[in-house]
Amino acid sequence: MPGFEVLYQAAALCLTYPDDDFRARLPLLREAAPQLRGFTDHAAATGQGELQAHYVEVFDFRNRHSLYLSWWTDGDTRNRGMSLVRFKELYRAHGLEFTGEELPDFLPAVLEFVSRTGDMGMLSEHRDALDQLRARLTAFGTPYACVLDAVCATLPPAPTGARR
């Protein structure tokens, strides 16, 4: 993962709710990850309230834009519980304990994990889900698609025959 640590950390921050801390970090994000300029330029030019409302519209009201990777593979089924356990076990295997309000498959958490450990297994395993999310964000016309574009550009292609 040569040099993608900063990009993944920056992408994780861009995909979380844009609170006051995000606004304060925005100049650093713009400098550190030029691949995300499509999004960070938009965020810099958009008022805080409007940016927050857009985030809620894009990610909180639609499973079509879910940031939870296991939702793409398991949906709202019993199998999802085992997938979430696998994420937690992976974090533990690297000496990290998952804490927080979100589930362990939350894309920003996974991106932060990859930036810290270099273990791209879960991103690669969920490449098809990332491609689906990217396509839906692009079709929706949101600048968040730029963030997924940058992340997906660093990953190997999804295996042939992957679910669409």
TrEMBL record:
Keyword Calcium applies: no
Keyword Magnesium appears in the UniProt entry: no
UniProt feature coiled coil, ranges: none
Key words of the record: Nitrate assimilation
Pfam families reported in the protein's UniProt record: Nitrate_red_del (PF02613)
Source taxon at top rank: Bacteria
InterPro entries in alphabetical order: DMSO/NO3_reduct_chaperone (IPR020945), NO3_reductase_chaperone_NarJ (IPR003765), TorD-like_sf (IPR036411)
Protein known as: Nitrate reductase molybdenum cofactor assembly chaperone
Source organism: Streptomyces anthocyanicus
